[in-house]
């Protein structure tokens, strides 16, 4: 199968492939490059070279792509259920044959599953970006956590600081230099021993936000290998974080997306 990619900025070839075709994994990606299964602007390459913005990249592979369930589409939007082990930015390449060029307008962590919206044209992309900036898209997640919140419902508020070099985010209970205010409501749904299932409603969208906030609240997500309770992960044999984006509601969609206004799109929470 051939995947057609475009470098959105100056970046290394391997970085582009890892972002756009994350389901292949770094080992397979490196093998495709060294085996000359990649073309840059029509010319085969066998090295991990630096790309310029706009470079066209063709990737040839027999590796089977994971199935992506599309739950809704029209002339402006595709709403898909992202599987685990996949960067959101990989979805356009996987869905291009049926839906053409797509633009992710928000992201989920690689190991977070669930609903993602993708724009099909520049007008839809601009309107989606406006809505997410205005926080008029209501998002709901379901998580299985170790422990239980002190109250059955409430608001988590932290200031998050990202350490880009280490790929980690730290939460603070008060404003700090470089900290981004992060807010999410929660609701306890059920409890089974030391594990609980909770619903989460973030009103901001920060890197690793829910994972970090829950860990800072002493109820880390089961299976989270970065911020979680490692003993509990081992005890329950869970190595994938139990966090799933289960719904998106467009409360104030306008312009080319006005037909979505007030609509909720949802998936089951069986993977959470």
Give a structural overview.
By secondary structure, the chain is an alpha+beta fold. It has three domains: about 1-60, RNA-binding S4 domain (Structural Genomics Hypothetical 15.5 Kd Protein In mrcA-pckA Intergenic Region, Chain A); about 70-135 and about 250-265, 2-Layer Sandwich (Pseudouridine synthase), CATH 3.30.2350.10; about 140-245, Pseudouridine synthase (2-Layer Sandwich), CATH 3.30.2350.10. It has six helices and 17 strands. The chain has helices at about 15-20, 25-35, 90-100, 120-135, 210-215, 230-235, and strands at about 1-5, 10, 40, 45, 50, 55-60, 70-75, 75-80, 105, 115-120, 135-145, 155-165, 170, 180-190, 195-200, 245-250, 265. It starts with a strand and ends in a 6-residue tail after the last strand.
Number of strands: 17
User: What's the number of domains?
Assistant: 3
The SSE string, one letter per element, is: EEHHEEEEEEHEEHEEEEEHHEE
Q: What's the number of helices?
A: 6
Give the DSSP E fraction (strand runs of 2 or more residues).
Answer: 35-45%
**Helix content percent band:** 10-25%
The major beta sheet can be summarized as: 11 strands, mixed
Instruction: Give start-end ranges of low-pLDDT stretches.
Output: none
In whole angstroms, the N-to-C terminal distance is 32 Å
User: Over the alpha carbons, how many angstroms does the gyration radius reach?
Assistant: 20 Å
Structural class: alpha+beta
- Per the CATH scheme, the topology name of the largest domain is Pseudouridine synthase
**Arithmetic mean pLDDT:** 94
Using the 3D structure, state the CATH architecture of the largest domain.
Answer: 2-Layer Sandwich
Classified by CATH, the class of the largest domain is Alpha Beta
Shape: globular
What would you give as the CATH superfamily of the largest domain?
Pseudouridine synthase
């Amino acid at each position: 199968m051939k995947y057609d990619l475009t470098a959105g900025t100056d970046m290394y070839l391997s970085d582009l492939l890892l972002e756009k075709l994350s389901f292949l994994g770094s080992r397979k990606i490196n093998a495709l490059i060294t085996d000359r299964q990649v073309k840059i602007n029509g010319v085969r390459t066998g090295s991990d070279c630096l790309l310029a913005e706009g470079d066209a990249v063709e990737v040839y592979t027999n590796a089977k792509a994971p199935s992506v369930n599309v739950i809704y589409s029209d002339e402006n939007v595709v709403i898909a259920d992202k599987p685990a082990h996949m960067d959101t930015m990989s979805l356009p390449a996987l869905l291009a044959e049926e839906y053409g060029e797509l633009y992710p307008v928000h992201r989920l962590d690689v190991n977070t599953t669930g609903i993602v919206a993708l724009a099909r044209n520049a007008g839809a992309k601009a309107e989606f970006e406006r809505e997410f900036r205005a926080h008029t898209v209501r998002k709901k997640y379901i998580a299985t956590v170790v422990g239980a919140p002190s109250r059955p419902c409430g608001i988590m508020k932290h200031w998050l600081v990202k350490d880009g070099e280490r790929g980690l985010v730290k939460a603070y209970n008060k404003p700090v230099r470089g900290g981004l205010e992060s807010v999410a409501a929660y609701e306890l749904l059920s409890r089974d021993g030391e594990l609980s299932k909770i619903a989460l409603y973030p009103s901001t969208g920060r890197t690793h936000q829910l994972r970090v906030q829950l860990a800072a609240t002493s109820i880390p997500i089961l299976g989270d290998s970065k911020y979680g309770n490692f003993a509990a992960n081992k005890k329950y044999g869970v190595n994938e974080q139990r966090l799933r984006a289960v719904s998106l509601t467009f409360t104030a969609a306008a312009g080319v997306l006005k037909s979505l206004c007030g609509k909720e799109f949802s998936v089951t929470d069986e993977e959470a």
